[in-house]
Structure formats: structure tokens, C-alpha cells
Specification:
This protein is mainly beta and 197 residues long. It has one domain (8-195). The chain has 1 helix and 8 strands. The protein has a 4-stranded antiparallel beta sheet, with no helix packed on it. The N and C termini lie far apart (42 Å).
Length: 197
Amino acid sequence: MSEPDDSDSAVDADRWREELESKRTEKDEFFAEHPQSPVPPEDRETFDGLEYFEPDLDYRVTATATVHDDPEVVLMETTAGREMRYLRVATLEFDLTRADEELEDGTYELGAYQLESPNDEPLFVPFRDKTTGQQSYEGGRYMELAPDRGLEDGDELTVDFNIAYTPFCAYSETFDCPLPPEENWLEVTIPAGERNE
């Protein structure tokens, strides 16, 4: 049984782009004005928005979930040198195909995690790719996925790298962020989502 999901062929590209740009504008306003912005108060006046890769539907993919009934504990190091305990609740497998980058075609996997304590939080998908430390933040980027219901083996869900974001610790050392585990280091370039200036 598949997770109800928009297939890529059914996506209204203009509407998708409009919604993505709207969310980006909202986030820029939050970073510039909100008291809980990760941008230090003294830097907010000069903050003129986050940098993004151009929206690209090639990096909005359909992933098939393998659900782990007895999730393994994964210890993630943090930017402050601590360890956080997560459970690998699912593995997401997806194909990446770009007509102009044949060498990067292939099937890839990402672990999806939740904190060890019981919760209804979205699936946490931290990752590194070949942009990490160059065009994107050296500590990797994050995605959060919120399926409509509990995942089952074989469910399909959308993984849209265009919503990949930089963790707050990139803006201030007051934040302590988990670093993507090695199993989520993708040997492929993902020029989508938030990027460095």
C-alpha cells in the first residue's frame, strides 16, 4: 500500500515553484525579524535573505520506504562535540536521474530518524552531499518529512531536496546541531535547497 502522494508527473510546476518561493520569503522574514531567529541580533539589520539553489524538479523524487520494526540506535555527533541518540525508523530508497549529468544517475538511500523518546515528530533526514563544505554548509543539511500516517514497508513518499535547509548552528554557536551520520553521506551533487552565500 502506497502513501498518498503526488507523483512527479502530476506536479503543477508553476504552483510548486510559487509555493516554494513563498515559503522561502516567509523564512527570510523570520530570520530577519523574529526574536527566535538564529541570526544574532546584532546581525539582523544587515541580513538580506538566505541563499538558495534554483528550484529544480529533478531533485523532487519519490522514495520507497523500508520500515524498521525494531529500529537501531544511531549515535549522531553534534557540532558541540556531544552525541545524540536517534532511532533509524526507516530507510528511503530513491532514483536520481538527470539527463545532463549521466554519471550521477543512480539509486541512493537515506536513513530517516526520530529521537529515541516516543514522539510524533516528522522524520528527520540529515545528509551530506558533494556540495557540503563548498556550495552548502560544512555540517550538512536537513530535511523533515511528515507522512500523512505511519509508514509501512513499500510506502512511497516525496523527498524534495529543494526544501533542504541549513541547521541553525551555521548562524550561531549557541546552537548545537546533530551531524549527518556517515550512512547519509551521498556521493552525488545535490544542488537544491539552501546554499552558502
